[in-house]
Amino acid sequence: MKFIIKVIRLMLGLFAYSVGIVMLINANMGLSPWDVLHQGISRQTVLTMGQAGILVGLGIVFFNFIFKEKVGVGTILNMLFIGIFLDFLMLNDILPQPDSLLARVSMLIGGMIVIAIASYLYIGAGLGAGPRDGLMVALQHKTGKSVRFVRNSIEITALVIGFILGGSVGPGTVITSVGQGYIMQFIFKVCRFNVKTVSHSYIDDNIRSALGRG
After folding, report:
1. Per-chain mean pLDDT for the chain
2. Mean pLDDT confidence for 45-63
3. Nearest to 122 by CA among 4, 7, 13, 23
4. Are 183 and 112 in contact (CB under 8 A)?
5. pLDDT tens digit string along 169-183?
6. How far is the C-alpha of 142 from the C-alpha of 137, rounded, in Å?
7. Domain ranges of the chain
8. Residues 147, 195: contact at Cβ < 8 Å?
9. pLDDT band at 143 (very low <50, low <70, confident <90, very high)
10. Can you give the three-state secondary structure of the chain, one letter per residue?
């Protein structure tokens, strides 16, 4: 029962995260680095943006597996469902597309807040890190560089490739890159949530537990 509650919390978080991404897209001020990449791939292929995100996530999960980073149920669901929810929201035009600058800025900031709340929900479920967080940890272990350096390097690479492919870059890209961390920190503080206290369970742990070996 406890596991089911965790999965429900995770799925709510992933859906909310997708809502936040669509809000950033509809604000039309430029996307976050990873979404610039996903949109760029989408514009150069027959894939939707959500499908492009799933494809990139699948590649990252494979990379993490090669480098022996643990994968959780949450990692797999993150890889699949953010893209599925994203396409559902976009293809059905569920969220509005504002016209005025004030409304667009408000939607951009609102999207960042929603993403922060979503992160609190899905990280707090404790079912494994997202694929991109796992990539950051894997490269940090392999290179010995700081987490900040590795994260910035990954996001700059995603941004450059996405921009070359035609992804949307603008003031919103800078705002989300700089401001998302601060908003997330504020939301976590309001929710009295400390990431360091989360104990994640991974697929190999789940298997051992199911077999009575954990």
Report:
1. 89
2. 94
3. 13
4. yes
5. 999 999 998 888 889
6. 9
7. 2-203
8. no
9. confident
10. CHHHHHHHHHHHHHHHHHHHHHHHHHHCCCCCHHHHHHHHHHHHCCCCHHHHHHHHHHHHHHHHHHCCCCCCHHHHHHHHHHHHHHHHHHHCCCCCCCCCHHHHHHHHHHHHHHHHHHHHHHHHCCCCCCHHHHHHHHHHHHHCCCHHHHHHHHHHHHHHHHHHHCCCCCHHHHHHHHHHHHHHHHHHHHCCCCHHHCCCCCHHHHHHHHCCCC
Give the burial string for 145-180 (b: 16+ CB within 10 Å, else e). Answer: eeeeebbeebbeebbbebbebebbbeebbebbbeeb
Residue type, 15: F
- 32, 169 Cβ separation under 8 angstroms: no
Q: Is the pTM of this model over 0.90?
A: no
Instruction: Output the furthest CA–CA distance in the chain (Å, rounded).
Output: 59
pLDDT at 112 over 80: yes
**97: which 2 tokens?**
């597309």
